[in-house]
Amino acid sequence: MKICMIGTGIYGLALALELAKNNNEIMMWSENPELVQKFRKTHQLKTIADVKIPQNINLTNSYEEAMVGAEVIFITCASKFVDIVAQKIKPFYHKKMVICIASKGIEETREELLSNVLIDILHTKNIAVISGPTFAVDMINGEPAALAIASLSKKSERIIMKCLPNEKLKLRPCKDIIGIQLCGSVKNCIAIASGILSGLGYSESTQSFLINESLHDIKEIISSLGGNPKTILSFAGVGDLMLTCMSHKSRNFSFGFTIGQTKDSKKIKEYLVNNTVEGYYTLDVVYKLLKHKSIDIPLINVIHNIVYNEEDPQNLAKFLIAKK
After folding, report:
1. Helix (H) or strand (E) holding 257
2. What is the pLDDT of residue 76?
3. What are the boundaries of each domain within the chain?
4. Alpha helix segments (H runs only) across the chain
5. Other beta carbons less than 10 A from residue 62's beta carbon
């Protein structure tokens, strides 16, 4: 099967390596011409991950070259670029192609789920979403991992279930494409909060306190926006929430840790410049979306005030104790 991968970050590479195990032909798109030129000479991506790249993975700067003959398009770019990417690939897209969204977040300008953005621009329902407790580095190292998959068409689920799972990567179908995307988005906001608590010196007990409280809030958000609150029990829910909220491998957690530990706005801004923190942007759009929909989630308000308005990080711990 020929597969197009839009995005050549570490998670895109991790998925490409999984797909390559099933003898698929993967063409990865990158906006960086120097990266492509170097790859074509060395067949290596050491600036992303020092790992052997199989011959059935290749790289291009051309959307047209990446998509020609492709049966599946994986989207792994940051969520804020999904609108732009959809516009760029539209001239080369045809409705037989299945799109699989691996990005986590909500589109900022539209305040829309990524699946809705693609439906609007590409006019297709051959869309699937995958999400779950997976760090790219662990997948690259060959550790067992699992993802939830939800789709808008049976064809989409069937194709992704054919090309992606292998002896180390499990996919479990879910019927809630709304809930899966909201779990993957909101958990990044909670991971920032968990990092803040850790940076302040609080123990895993307090972090677990936060995680448990956030489960109820995520369920409420899912339900209010038309999803199934039980999706919190999927790989995209509790599993991903726990993983992201308890590890420095998570850039969202590490960003929060920087806020809690330093309280230095210069160092916090430096972290954002040097790292892609999906949860930073997602937090703002989730906050605005909830306001516009009149959905009251006080925990999100507290985290947003600390991150965006530079309020005292200790307010988070005070809020948890005071919450009824």
Report:
1. helix 251-262
2. 96
3. 2-173, 178-322
4. 10-20, 33-42, 63-67, 82-89, 114-122, 136-140, 154-163, 177-199, 204-224, 240-245, 251-262, 265-274, 278-292, 298-309, 314-322
5. 12
Q: How far apart are CA 180 and CA 280, in angstroms?
A: 19
Q: Is the dihedral of CA 136, 139, 144, 146 positive or negative?
A: positive
Residues of the chain falling short of pLDDT 70: 324
Instruction: Dump the DSSP string for 274-288.
Output: HS--HHHHHHHHHHH
Q: How far is CA 114 from the centre of its chain?
A: 11
Cα-based torsion angle of the residue sequence 199, 243, 129, 31 in order, rounded to the nearest 10 degrees: 50
What's the Cα-to-Cα distance from 271 to each of 258, 262, 264, 286, 316, rounded to whole Å? 8, 11, 11, 21, 21
pLDDT tens digit sequence for 2-20: 999 999 999 999 999 999 9
At 182 the pLDDT is 97
Q: Does residue 127 contact residue 153 with C-beta atoms inside 8 Å?
A: yes
The second-level CATH assignment, the architecture, of 178-322 is Orthogonal Bundle (1.10)
Helix crossing, 204-224 with 314-322: angle to 10°?
A: 70
Task: Provide the whole-model pTM.
Answer: 0.94
pLDDT at 324: 66
Residue type, 136: A
pLDDT of residue 137: 95
**Correct CATH for 2-173 of 3.10.120.10, 2.60.40.10, 3.40.50.720, 3.40.50.300:** 3.40.50.720
pLDDT, residue 265, reads 87
What residue type is 254 in one-letter code? Answer: S
What 3-state class would DSSP assign to 99? strand
Note the pLDDT tens digit of each residue in 137-186.
999 999 999 999 999 999 999 999 999 999 999 999 999 999 999 999 99
Two domains, one topology: 2-173 and 178-322? no
